[in-house]
Amino acid sequence: MNKTRDSAEELYLLESSAENTLNGLYHFHKTSISTANRPKCLSQKNLDAILKKIAKKFPLPSDFIHKENCSELIKSRLEILEETQSFYNIMRNFTCYKETAINLLTSAFSVKEVCMKSHTYIAVGILQVLSTLIRGFYIINKIEDLTKLIGVYGLVYQSIHNSNESSYISVCKLIQDYNDPLAKLSEDLSIGETMIQNILCGLIDDFRPCILEGKQLQTNYHFNLSVGQKSMSVPYCTILYPNLLKNEAIESVVNVLIVQNMVVPLHRDMHVNYFKELTTAIETRGKA
Fold first, then answer.
1. C-alpha span between 41 and 38 (Å, rounded)
2. Which family does it belong to (predicted)?
3. What is the DSSP track for 132-151?
4. How confident is the model at residue 200 (pLDDT cuts 50, 70, 90)?
5. Fewer Cβ neighbours under 10 Å: the N or C end of the chain?
């Protein structure tokens, strides 16, 4: 029981930072597609060639700055560092969140027979953290020129300090590894396949009040977790936002943790008070 309570508390504490983490990513995305607010280095013609090389060779080898002609970057390195610092910090924060989340979820999966009836709060915690992870990766996959911005930040930081920023390699690895986020998360969380499936299936009766109307917005999907020969497939119904779905490859990441007609919000601009309704519904049933 103590392990169950500790896991639930740790997941709750982690999730308390999720809103700021996701808001940061959302701001990064909006800035990356804004002509007026994009970092100036992305529109400077004298940097165009080196930025294209950065994107092509990302994550960059340690000797990139010595092998390539980075003279134009060096000239403007302080300005570039200043205008890319906040975006790098956003990615560093999410990288930290992801690493902590994977560790806590792995620990939570070791709790025996977690289900909504007997372990409500740890089950909700698992879904909250998993939801934040996939929502975060969805937004990251929408950020334009991400590898250019993170790569150029790393180069100018290295040229100033003669070493990488302490989290730079981890941030680059996250961007590279999670280019296909569902596949990578499936691998990372394979130990929890059965538990996730059981928790999701247990939500069906509790979420009748949260069903969203509007069949014209709904389409059927399957959220798949596959590792080797083992796989699970959970039926989902996702809300599609056509103005956001320019990349078909990430459609299945939209509005995750959706069981039949029950929806978790994609981000703050599409808010559905999902987990408040979840907790209320379950607590009410428990008192009945």
1. 8
2. Belongs to the HEM-1/HEM-2 family.
3. HHHHHHHHHTT-TTHHHHHH
4. low
5. C
Q: Where are the domains of the chain?
A: 2-191, 194-216+238-286
User: Mean pLDDT over residues 11-15, rounded?
Assistant: 86
pLDDT score at 286: 38
- In 3D space, the residue among 7, 11, 10 whose CA is nearest the CA of residue 112 turns out to be 7
Cα→Cα distances 130→136, 162, 255, Å: 10, 37, 12
Longest Cα separation, the chain:
71
**Residue appearing with tokens 């699970």:** 232
Per-residue b or e along 259-278, where b marks 16 or more CB atoms closer than 10 Å to that residue's CB:
bbbbbbbbbeeeebebbeeb
CB 217 within 8 Å of CB 272: no
Length of the chain: 288
